[in-house]
């Protein structure tokens, strides 16, 4: 166990690195509203899709699955969500590791009518666990099948499962292979570079899989102290199912969500411990990354996605102790949600205006400007926030620019929230 002196040193280190975020996200409960949606009243514009058997719950990640026509225009769009209602008994990131037996689920949501269907894991090996975390799917072009990768926190090790899913049978994901590697220490989030390669974040060097008493002390120490021990890798899947692994970014505290801009030249990576997003210039030929800048957000960042216009949607946890309380099944515990958009500013605006502004995000009931300063290259705006009473433990939000709809899932929340302007 940590001594009192060690604990105080960790807290001091964390406060030094994260400043205001620690004050508002660790030491005090932020004054969030019951709910706020940027494009209208939550009561009339938002609804939570639920499923009678309660298997659309504890969904850590969600992605758009686009069906493109012959001209590469979006003919149809679906949301695929990875859910694990057993997460409070099996969570290799936060703990505990008590019961890995019940499998998780994949769900397909039609963005036209919120129609909900469970996706069957066709051909998935008997006796193989399925606990989905990060995932990504290639678009289907002119009816062709898509390649679908899912991080799987199975009992023995964390793997990445490869599936094929097709528009002519959208509720069947045909299992192809399990990708396993000694480099997969703690895979979390994925960003595809093509059908056979992707970036993958590893959120911890010291994981909950360590033997007692090393776990949970060392993983929690790594998280709370903001130790820069996690990393981002680029993985190529070879024709024989082996992988080629290459380190892409090192020294990140709690590397979590990862996303690539629509033009492919920018990669965003969230540092959960610091409440920051690291931006890298990406070489689209070699997949090499060069660090460019960081932006602060008013919560402990989880997953990221770029919309079609190049705005980054970042979602996370405004109050970490509340999240821990929900994970531990504390009576009446609830954990808040917060999602923002970060729109890139022109170079002329970077330094002259945005960096010197102390007030921004003024439409939100709790402005991000009361917690973190404005970032030089990005305009931040709150899309959704809640004290957890309407929707809690937010991990991922997707914004569909065709309709303006916002889709959100939560780590320990039941259902998927959909807000439409």
Automatic annotation (TrEMBL):
Coiled coil: none annotated. It comes from Rhizopogon vesiculosus. It comes from the Eukaryota. The lineage of its organism: Eukaryota, Fungi, Dikarya, Basidiomycota, Agaricomycotina. SUPFAM superfamilies: Calcium-dependent phosphotriesterase (SSF63829). InterPro entries: 6-blade_b-propeller_TolB-like, Serum_paraoxonase/arylesterase. This is SMP-30/Gluconolactonase/LRE-like region domain-containing protein.
